[in-house]
């Protein structure tokens, strides 16, 4: 059995965006996002367990190193999720400028409910300020519901 590679699910989300045609948004990958969030939760639990070992254990380089690796993996996954959401938001912003508030049929099945609401309710000039709210809402909503 191969060792687990942290961040692989997050990297897959970004590869998926790269493979997609430039003028199109790929289907919202709920399962991929779930995997990334699940891995982040596992890593966080592992960091917490390691910290509970106490100062003596933390003095050992392999223990301290595991915390650094796990924490860096959590941060990398967060950055990948934010890049995934930001890319999708940019695509929707471009669509809003080009097509207006109506989402073309070929895009409807590819976007999440949060993306559809943001697209329908925000005028194009509000996308910049709404981007942060959308990303935070998407991540927090997903984490709370799964």
Give the low-confidence spans: none
- How many helices? 7
Q: What kind of sheet is the major sheet? A: none
Global Rg = 18 Å
Derived structural class: mainly alpha
Distance between the termini: 28 Å
Task: Note the topology.
Blueprint: H1 8-19, H2 30-51, H3 55-58, H4 61-99, H5 105-108, H6 113-121, H7 127-145
Helix pairs in contact: 1-2, 1-4, 2-4, 4-7
Jot down its keywords:
elongated, mainly alpha
Please explain how this structure is put together.
The chain is mainly α. The chain has seven helices and no strands. Helix 1 runs parallel beside helix 4 (61-99) and helix 2 runs antiparallel to helix 4. The longest helix has 39 residues, at 61-99. The protein is elongated and about 60 Å long. It starts with 7 loop residues before the first helix and ends with a helix. The model has no long low-confidence stretch (mean pLDDT 83).
Précis, in short:
The protein is an all-alpha fold. It has helices at residues 8-19, 30-51, 55-58, 61-99, 105-108, 113-121, 127-145.
């Amino acid at each position: 059995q191969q060792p687990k590679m942290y961040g692989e699910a997050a990297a897959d989300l970004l590869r998926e965006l790269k493979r997609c045609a430039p003028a199109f948004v790929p289907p919202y990958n709920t399962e991929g996002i779930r995997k990334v969030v699940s891995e982040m939760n596992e890593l966080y639990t592992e960091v917490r367990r390691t910290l509970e070992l106490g100062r003596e254990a933390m003095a050992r380089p392999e223990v301290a190193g595991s915390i650094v690796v796990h924490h860096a993996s959590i941060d990398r996954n967060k950055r990948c999720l934010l890049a995934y959401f930001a890319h999708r938001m940019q695509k929707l912003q471009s669509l809003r400028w080009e097509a207006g508030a109506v989402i073309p049929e070929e895009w409807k099945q590819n976007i999440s409910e949060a993306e559809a609401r943001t697209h329908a309710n925000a005028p194009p000039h509000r996308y910049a300020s709404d981007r942060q709210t959308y990303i935070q809402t998407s991540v927090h909503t997903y984490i709370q519901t799964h």
